[in-house]
């Protein structure tokens, strides 16, 4: 179909770097296996804080040049993961980073948080009807941790999946397509706790402080996890390299990393998901080891 590979995975994220932190192993794995991996990033991450002092001038409150810089970081990260189809929702710069919840940037013109969900979803419908993914990965309704752009990414992805499948929605704009399985990004609590125990045992690495399991987006009780991806050293290495490529946002040190808050956290080389739509491809009580399990390619 469309000359694309049989297996097609779509990931929807808020900012450049979210995809590498959440799904780097998964993206590297499926790209390496020949699946078509499409990343849609909803903003350029213009409001991010900048870690390297030499690049501090890029920040929104100085030159406001972080967006274009992060486009380059994302491209470098995708090269590390072997992903060639990465796009910005509605084109680069169509929607702007909204900043943290409650910030004045939430409501500035063009802010993703202020966008009409159906209008924003319309751009994603076009991608879905073109690429025709069987599997969609996005955040939970809280965006994993309450960031407005992450919440909005969830809403837009969910709405677009619905509209893309509806034959009555813009009948001229591509054949309708129903996504077989939708997953939310998750981290099992036990994995987060074990990771932080490792970090504390190592003396917190080079970071001045340590985050806590509750700071990790998408942490839930282990019982909610339905899929687990990982175990290949090459994919873990690709994820680490992709995270390093987001140098304005992430400081990687061995098996740990920190964001601009300088709090160390474990770098997870296994990734976890909760299936929220579609039929599980593993027996009840067992985790899927393949997001395409049970999907007819
Ligand atoms: Zn983000």
Automatic annotation (TrEMBL):
Pfam families: PIG-L. It comes from Streptomyces subrutilus. Zn(2+) binds at residues 15, 18, 150. It is an enzyme of class 3 (hydrolase). Its EC number is 3.5.1.103. One of its GO terms (molecular function) is zinc ion binding. Binds 1 zinc ion per subunit. GO terms for biological process: mycothiol biosynthetic process. It catalyses: 1D-myo-inositol 2-acetamido-2-deoxy-alpha-D-glucopyranoside + H2O = 1D-myo-inositol 2-amino-2-deoxy-alpha-D-glucopyranoside + acetate. The gene is mshB. Keywords: Hydrolase, Metal-binding, Zinc. The keyword Nucleotide-binding does not apply. This is 1D-myo-inositol 2-acetamido-2-deoxy-alpha-D-glucopyranoside deacetylase.
């Amino acid at each position: 179909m469309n000359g694309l590979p049989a297996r097609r995975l779509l990931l929807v994220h808020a900012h450049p770097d979210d995809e590498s932190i959440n799904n780097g192993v998964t993206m590297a794995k499926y790209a390496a296996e020949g699946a078509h991996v499409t990343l849609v990033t909803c903003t350029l991450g213009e409001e991010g804080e900048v870690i390297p002092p030499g690049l501090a001038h890029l920040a929104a409150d100085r030159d406001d040049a972080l967006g274009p810089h992060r486009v380059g970081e994302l491209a470098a990260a995708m090269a590390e993961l072997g992903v060639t189809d990465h796009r910005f929702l509605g084109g680069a710069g169509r929607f702007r980073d909204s900043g943290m919840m409650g910030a004045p940037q939430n409501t500035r013109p063009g802010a993703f948080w202020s966008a009409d969900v159906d209008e924003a979803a319309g751009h994603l419908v076009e991608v879905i009807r073109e690429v025709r993914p069987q599997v969609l990965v996005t955040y939970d309704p809280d965006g994993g941790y309450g960031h407005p752009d992450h919440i909005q990414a969830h809403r837009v992805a969910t709405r677009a999946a619905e509209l893309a499948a509806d034959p009555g929605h813009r009948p001229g704009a591509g054949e309708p397509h129903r996504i077989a399985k939708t997953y939310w990004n998750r981290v099992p609590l036990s994995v987060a706790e074990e990771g932080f125990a490792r970090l504390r045992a190592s003396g917190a690495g080079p970071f001045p402080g340590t985050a806590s399991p509750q700071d990790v987006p998408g942490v839930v009780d282990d019982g909610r996890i339905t899929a687990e991806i990982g175990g290949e050293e090459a994919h873990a290495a690709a994820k680490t390299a992709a995270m390093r490529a987001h140098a304005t946002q992430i400081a990687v040190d061995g098996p740990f990393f920190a964001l601009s808050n300088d709090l160390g956290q474990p770098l997870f080389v296994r990734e976890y998901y909760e299936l929220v739509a579609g039929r599980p491809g593993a027996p009840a009580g067992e985790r899927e080891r393949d997001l395409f399990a049970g999907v007819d390619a």
